[in-house]
Amino acid sequence: MIWVKRSAIxxxxxxxxxxxxxxxxxxxxxxxxxxxxxxxxxLPSLSxxxxxxxxxxxxxxxxxxxxxxxxxxxxxxxxxxxxxxxxLTPAVCISNLAVSGVRFSMPELPPAxxxxxxxxxxxxxxxxxxxxxxxxxxxxxxxxxxxxxxxKVAWQHFATAAEMQGERLVIKPTEWQKIELELASASxxxxxxxxxxxxxxxxxxxxxxxxxxxxxxxxxxxxDFTLQGEPAQTVKKLELVASASGSEIVVERLEVSAPQAAxxxxxxxxxxxxxxxxxxxxxxxxxxxxxxxxxxxxAEGSVANLTLDAQVKGTLDARLKGRLSPLEPALPFELxxxxxHLQWPIDSEPDxxxxxxxxxxxxxxxxxxxxxxxxxxxxPMPAVGAELVGKGSLEDIELSRLAVDTLGGKVSGSASASxxxxxxxxxxxxxxxxxxxxxxxxxxxxxxxxxxTSGGLTPQGGWFVELPELVVDGVVMEQQLDLAxxxxxxxxxxxxxxxxxxxxxxxxxxxxxxSAKGRLNKTWDMVAEINAPDLSQSVPGLRGSVLxxxxxxxxxxxxxxxxxxxxxxLGWESLASLETLTLKGxxxxxxxxxxxxxxxxxxxxxxxxxxxxLSLLFKGSEKRHQLTLDMNAEPVSTALRLQGELxxxxxxxxxxxxxxxxxxxxxxxxxxxxAIGYRFDxxxxxxxxxxxxxxxxxxxxxxxxxxxxxxxxxxxVALSNVDFEMLEPYLPDNVELNGSAGVQAEVAWAPKSxxxxxxxxxxxxxxxxxxxxxxxxxxxxxxxxxxVNAEVKQDTLNADWLFAIRDNGDLSGRVRVAPLTxxxxxxxNLKLDRFMLGFLKPLLMDYHTFDGQVxxxxxxxxxxxxxxxxxxxxxxxxxxxxRTVPVDVDRADITATFSGYQAxxxxxxVTPDGKLNITGxxxxxxxxxxxxxxxxxxxxxxxxxxxxxxxxxxxxLTIKASPQQAEITGSVAIPWGRITVDQLPxxxxxxxxxxxxxxxxxxxxxxxxxxxxxxxTNVLVRIGNDVKxxxxxxxxxxxxxxxxxxxxKGPLVYGEVNLRNGIYRSFAQELVIRKxxxxxxxxxxxxxxxxxxxxxxxxxxxxxxxxxxxxGPADEPRVDIFSDPAMPQQNxxxxxxxxxxxxxxxDSNDAMATTLLSMGLAQSGQLVGDxxxxxxxxxxxxxxxxxxxxxxxTISGYIAPGLQVKYGVGIFNSxxxxxxxxxxxxxxxxxxxxxxxxxxxxxxxxxxx
Length: 1249
What we know:
- This protein has a 68-stranded mixed sheet that branches. Strands 69-70-71-72-73-74 form a six-stranded antiparallel sheet.
- The termini are far apart.
- Among the domains are: 2-108 and 130-184, no CATH class; 1162-1249, no CATH class.
- It is mostly beta strands and 1249 residues long.
- 6% of the residues lie in helices and 62% in strands.
- Keywords: Membrane, Transmembrane, Transmembrane helix.
């Protein structure tokens, strides 16, 4: 019994050791290492770089590889984590399976083993059942690249989870991202389609398909899928929710988003019997030209008997309904298409439209019937109502009815075509009462006719066309039109031996006609005649006559063509005309071209071109021929003589023996005989070096070297001794240009390379003079030399220039742009050295002194559209003065400094009264948000605008600018000022807001061009105590503050201006302004007035105060008469006008007459001014003068510049007074008065404080 005990202990120990060993293998790193070692021993092609973890607690492998003759596999990392607790359930639970960095390649299939070659069982698998469930919580496949037989697929990320229990598989939400698929190129070897055994015409029998698993796809998402190709196809997103069980497949949701369209669909299908199915789909189309269209599709029934309903919505509107049997060999079908609107082009204004379209078709590929009805219209065609009825098959088609309603008439006919053996067709067409004038108003008429045709291909490889009957008759443009004849043409053998035969083909329209008769076969015998004495009867806009004939005769291998055509008084509307045109001659086109042709014309006109005579002669054969052209015309005449020879298999070569071109720039003559040619095989033209020159030592345009031009070539051109005198006809009358110029250029080009261009322009000493005004000196700019050089080489432009200005500075620079066809980079420099501005003085006629100096050294580098600027621009020593200019400048210096994308501005302007300081800066680093700022400040600078204005201003302004807004802030003080406005005529009125200005083409001229940004202002204007105003009878001092603002509502003014010590003349009297306020609270043209003006107390009796009170808006003021003490209006008015009350000593009728006269004359100014303008008298006005009993009515006006005439008559006495005043100079007049007393006075006008 001891051995039994010992044996049991040994067995238990052995089992314990085995358990410990198995546990160690499954739960310690040693186990995974042993597994890796064993796998590598079994598979020598397998390699594993490193391993971590244990078999059941999770492990990872790095750098796994497998390589043999047909498979290459590498895996950067593989991680597997199994939940061991599930093994007791029993179940397999994989919490994580992650694979990354997979590279798999199988360029060819591995050789098949004998076991693989054994015939597999033909029984399909209909059920799969797992004995234990499998749970996969997380599956990650990242950075995967597969290449199987040249088909490549790669993706960035794949994540899913799944579970399978029994025969049910559930795929959890899945994401597949960044997929690229590239299919292998198709094999060039043809593959014969295998014919299934027992296949016959009985139709296709669908197999029953049973899916061995019940599959649920909760959500499967694909993002950024690309199918490589030309062009590449992409899918932005695909999302699928579906299930399958047995033979049933249900797609609950399928959404696809691609650049071309977006799809939303749901479907179900049973893979048994006839495959019953139901499908609903909607497609939003994004692809041009049918973007913004929607396609809705419904399919029901089964694959064997399918019912379709499809509709397109959008610009195109169509619906297709039908039934078809795809499994039947003959494909039976029944379809109907209905559309209310079709058009082309689809995405723009249509050229063609079809409405109320109905198409029905029923039958099979063996035979079907169809009908079509539609209304078609379009820009290049008249409206058409069409009806087609026919039948057809895969071998032929027949139109039994063709009916078209158009242009007020009808077209009917029938046609058939067959292509069973050889293509053939035949047709017949009748039309009646077609009225082209309904569409083309210039061609009214009524036509009827008949046409029969047939044709086809021949067994020998040729063709034939028969037109046995062609008849058209009717009226067009009130002229009888007849077209009749027959025509046949063929090339039976297909060897180019075309035969044409007509017994007569004649077209007659009114007096004009064309006819042809004859045969072209082995022997040519055909005559075509044209007799058109009045083309205007047949073609609107065309005029003249054409008479003549063309005869074809001789053998086909050596035919002769005689041409004799004469045209007279030809013309097209008012655009072109030609008195005579003649074409005569003989042509033998085969076997060797030989011709003797002459074309002459005379009396032609087109636009600014006038043809006096033209003669074009061609004579000779291919081997030797001559072309002579003589044209006498304006503005260009020419005489050319060309001799050449043609080798059909090689090319043409010749010599330009004579050349002369007479232009407005002179006569240019060819200096030598010049060889020219063209090679057919190389498509290469050649021209020898030559010149077109004027007289000796004058302008010449030369090709300096022999040139060849084709796909590649090179040309050297020079233009020399071009005297600017020849440009005189093209210059304005007040511009004189002296000097000459020379240009040299070299151009080269070749396939697949950028062109090469090198050019230089040289101007020796010269000048340009402009005479702006005969009374001032002309502006003259001279130069010692001007050079400009440019070169385009290797996609790079390099250029430099120098302008050496005579008695002035130099302007020089350079520029480099590279590359020209890509992201262009700029590198440029501009220098201006001691450039004086004095030459501009004649242009500034108001200045008697003007001078200054400009210096610049600026570099521009970076992208062409956004370069950086560095350097300095300096304007210095500017002096400007004049008698009529606002400001005299003793010295001005302004400097702009550029630093990349920033600039700073500083300057000082010195005037006789003080300095004006200017500062500023700018930044354009961001072109969309550039900014600039300018500051201007000074102290009591005098600004004069004679004779209107003289003020002293103290500005302190800041101006800011950006793409969206310009802002002006600060203040302007006016401590002193004198404002004088001369009296305007009563007829002066502002321009109406309804005025519209027109340009030369009678189109409105845009007078108020919008500012491209908003303007915002906030400026305080301070009017000091020493500002005087004299205007329209008002003399007063001004004082006050105004705030000028502007925003999106427009310019607004806020503040108050007071009138001090004012005197105003009204109703022929002087009124003292006792109170004067102008209040601004909004738009500048709508101030509020509060003014009291009384009669001068020194000129009024009884110590009475009487005057006018003006209140209210400026455009509708209220005027009241007041007095102190209070009294009736007529008494107060008498005090204002006469200075005394109404009394018995003065007839009240006289006082009222004076009042009414003054008020009436105040309202008649515009009428009187208009009358004066009509008779040539300027500023004619009607007014009153004097006071009391001495009141006069006066009429005055200017009958010549400075000469005024005035005539007055007393109201209460009839004594006339005549006055003549002449202005000798400013403020100095001589005046002669003739009346009760006569006098001659010398008057001088001045003012003082």
